[in-house]
Design goal:
Layout: H1 2-23, E1 25-32, H2 45-55, E2 59-62, H3 66-71, H4 79-91, E3 95-98, H5 105-123, H6 125-145, H7 149-152, H8 155-172, H9 174-197, E4 203-208, H10 212-219, E5 225-227, H11 230-236
Parallel strand pairs: 1-4, 1-5, 2-3, 2-4
Helix pairs in contact: 2-4, 5-6, 5-9, 6-8, 8-9, 9-10
Organism: Pseudoduganella guangdongensis
Keywords: Signal
Signal peptide: 1-23
């Protein structure tokens, strides 16, 4: 009987030792700038590609739709894909996941927001124009702050962009808030799926800088995910 207990204790110890390694996959959550990459020398598309190569992920979760991933075509503003990520995917093998929803969910979310914004612009043109000016000024200030790729991912950036996004959703009402939550939860769910299907693999998530704060909140607290401190990692890596 004692021998049986010893064997069970040993087996429990082995499982306890192995489980944490399997349960926590490294996830790198990197915000991208779309066309603004052209205006931020410290975080241009070439730098983004070098960061991806340095991370050396097994899995990429990209803010594209399934159809865009398959056809390698994206919205024209997403220059990091056409000029950087897609060419890199042609040279290196990655497991890839599309973070954006397929149809009809894509159009359901996008069209609901588009319709609400058009209504808001028509009903409250002065407030709409004021917010657009504020948004433009915010990115102008952030552009000065972004002297390194690490700073693009830091708390100052995240808090400012998150506050702006929350305020806009509050002004526009539940349609915008619900759309933001559904969109970014979908991204987080795809990340969780990637981690679940490839335990222990290194996962790199690319998402628009405006979406990064909410995606991060959706991933925090998941025992299967070890979120990498991106500002610290990028600084240590020389970015």
């Amino acid at each position: 009987m004692n021998k049986l207990f010893q064997c069970l204790a040993a087996a429990t110890l082995v499982v306890a030792t192995i489980t944490p390694a399997l349960a926590a996959s490294e996830v790198f959550l990197l915000g991208t700038l779309y066309k603004r990459h052209e205006q931020v020398p410290a975080y241009n598309v070439d730098t983004l590609v070098r960061i991806v190569e340095k991370v050396a992920p097994d899995v990429l979760v990209l803010d594209v739709t399934p159809d865009e991933l398959r056809k390698r075509t994206v919205f024209p503003g997403k220059i990091e894909y056409t000029h950087g990520i897609f060419p890199l995917m042609d040279k290196r093998k990655f497991i890839t996941y599309p973070a954006e929803p397929a149809e009809p969910l894509f159009s359901e979310i996008v069209e609901s927001v588009k319709s609400r914004i058009q209504q808001f612009d028509k009903e409250q043109p002065e407030l709409s124009a004021s917010f657009k000016r504020t948004e433009k000024n915010m990115y102008a200030m952030l552009g000065k702050h972004w002297s390194s790729a690490a700073r693009v991912q830091d708390d100052a950036t995240s808090e400012m962009i998150d506050a702006s996004a929350r305020l806009y959703a509050e002004i526009l009402g539940p349609v915008k808030k619900d759309a933001d939550e559904r969109w970014d939860k979908h991204t987080a769910d795809m990340v969780k799926r990637a981690v679940s299907e490839h335990p222990g693999k290194r996962v790199l998530v690319l998402t628009g800088i405006r979406n990064r704060p909410l995606v991060q909140r959706n991933l925090q607290g998941d025992p299967a995910i070890k979120l990498v401190d991106m500002p610290a990692w990028l600084t240590q890596a020389g970015f």
